[in-house]
Design a protein that fits this description.
48% of the residues lie in helices and 10% in strands. The chain is built from 13 helices and 11 strands. The strands form 3 sheets. The chain has a 6-stranded mixed β-sheet with strand order 4-5-3-8-9-10, with helices on both faces. It has a 3-stranded mixed β-sheet with strand order 7-6-11.
């Protein structure tokens, strides 16, 4: 009897604990439900979504129809504010990975490192490679031109075939290099970040140049002048001169592009000083000009001091190329640079002579007003006009046209050079051998003052090289040009760029004017193919 009472007493105690257990289980289940709900909302936010949509999504996730793993990594699902489920067609792809310099071919990186260049972007690296390639291509053309001029006015058919084969090999190599550079840019289109526009422009220049080279190769392969025993060398020389003009255009455009990409005020000055100098004159080139302007603005951050620029461009320099050859035309440009440099008054605190490209020279004048700069430009122009240039007994005269501008506060280097070249073009249209002035309202012609300048003979190959900016190698001919001589001026050698080319090889197509940068139009030579 006692045992039975104990049993019922234990049963009564258990029944009293049932509500407690039920309460604990209920709380646990609610915690699980809240946790599951929070996990679903964190994985798939549902702004303004009704409970019925949540219920449907919960069932869908539970059934495995739309698990998070099924959504591609990096894919952003776009939903409307009204709680739409998200159309797969409107899903945005992940942002592209920017192509870095590690994607350049290994041999390119080795070439750049050997030249002391550390590019900061893929586009910059490609531009440097093209710059190196076009310089090598130019040297090969110069060697071929010098050798052709040395053999006389005609060559045998066998010798002419050899020159043609050599030209074809040189141009095919340059064509392959351009194609490779264009392919590197094209394959990474959309992954070049802020340099997409510069890359597209560079690629277009390379494609245009490649089309011109293909035209030359076709002309050389179909040349029908080899039917005679002796072939005139002049048409081949003219073809080389045309190729050199195209190479100079690419060279100057590449420097424009690099100056745009690596402008010092962007904080990306990382090129070696050696590439800032023009190899022909030793003067600062387009990159050097950019650095000089930046140095001036660093000393005048408020842009309150006077700054003027003048440009001098040799008139009809193409005639000298035709008559004397590119090597001697280079030396003429160097002699003119030396003449201008010696004529600078050295009165200001910031006077620098640079070579913009081709036959154009720019003088930067700090703390100098526009009218004072115009007087200096006229003095320099009249000094050149009074000089006689001499090359191994051959004398000739040169003249220059000029433009002068006053820099406006806050004006960029690109805008400065565009105005400067616009003033130069105005002087060219006014008859050449004159200077135009732009004080901010467009270029105008003024009556120039006359200066008492004395005539002098300027040798193209002086005996000394004591001018500060001139490198010792300036007056040494290229390796294959040691025996270079001036070919006697035959009647056809006086051909000007405005006259038709001699009949033989078809003339290459005119270069297509596609800009690499905003400065490209400013760097084009007003007289056409006059660039040395």
């Amino acid at each position: 009897m006692v045992k039975r009472d104990v049993f019922w007493e234990g049963a009564s105690s258990s029944s009293r604990n049932i509500p407690v257990v039920t309460y604990v289980l209920t709380v646990a289940l609610l915690n699980l439900a809240v946790g599951y709900f929070a996990a679903v909302c964190l994985a798939h936010p549902l702004p303004r979504v009704g409970w019925w949509r949540l219920r449907r999504r919960t069932f869908s996730l539970a059934a495995g129809h739309a698990s998070p793993a099924a959504v591609p990594a990096g894919t952003l699902e776009v939903r409307s504010d009204t709680g739409g489920e998200g159309n797969p067609a409107t899903r945005l792809p992940p942002p592209p990975v920017i192509a870095g310099i590690e994607e350049l071919p290994r041999e390119w990186l080795e070439r750049l490192a050997a030249d002391g260049i550390v590019p900061q972007s893929l586009v910059e690296g490609v531009a440097h490679i093209v710059r190196l390639d076009v310089n090598h291509y130019r040297e090969q053309l110069l060697e071929t031109e010098v050798s052709l001029r040395a053999v006389g006015s005609s060559v045998t058919r066998l010798a002419a075939q050899g020159w043609i084969d050599r030209l074809r090999a040189v141009n095919q190599e340059w064509l392959d290099q351009q194609t490779a550079a264009a392919n590197v840019l094209a394959q990474r289109s959309g992954r070049l970040g802020e340099h997409e526009q510069a890359a597209a422009a560079l690629e277009q220049v390379l494609l245009d140049q490649a089309a011109q080279i293909r035209s030359v190769l076709n002309a050389l392969s179909t040349w029908d002048a080899l039917g005679s025993e002796h072939v005139a060398s002049r048409p081949l020389i003219d073809q080389i001169l045309s190729l050199l003009v195209q190479a100079h255009s690419v060279r100057d455009r590449i420097l424009d592009l690099l100056a745009t990409l690596l402008r010092p005020d962007s904080g990306q000055v990382h090129w070696p000083v050696t590439i800032e100098n023009d190899p022909v004159t030793g003067l600062p080139n387009r990159l050097g000009l950019e650095r000089l302007l930046d140095a001036w603005w660093q000393s005048d951050p408020q842009r309150t001091r006077l700054l003027s620029l003048l440009i001098l461009d040799i008139d009809r320099f193409g005639r000298l190329n035709q008559r004397l050859g590119t090597v001697w035309a280079d030396r003429a440009a160097a002699a003119l640079a030396r003449l201008i440099y010696e004529a600078l008054p050295r009165e200001g605190s910031f006077e620098h002579l640079t070579r913009l490209g081709g036959q154009a020279f720019v003088v930067i004048l700090g703390d100098v007003g526009p009218h004072q700069a115009l007087s200096l430009a006229e003095r320099l122009r009249q000094t050149v006009e009074a000089a006689t240039f001499e090359a191994e007994g051959t004398e000739f005269d040169l003249s220059v046209s000029g433009g002068v501008i006053e820099v406006r506060p806050g004006e960029s280097s690109l805008a400065i050079l565009e105005r400067l070249v616009a003033a130069l073009r105005h002087a060219k249209r006014a008859g050449r051998n004159r200077c135009a002035l732009d004080e901010g309202n467009g270029p105008v012609m003024l009556d120039p003052p006359q200066f008492p300048v004395k005539g002098r003979v300027v040798p193209l190959v002086p005996e000394t090289t004591d001018v500060p900016f001139v490198s010792p190698a300036l007056y040494l001919p290229p390796a294959a040009s040691a025996t270079a001589t001036i070919v006697p001026a035959a009647p056809e050698m006086h051909q000007t760029p405005d006259e038709p080319a001699p009949a033989a090889l078809p003339a290459p197509p005119e270069p297509v004017d596609h800009a690499v940068s905003e400065l490209d139009k400013a760097s084009q030579v007003p007289d056409g193919p006059d660039s040395p």
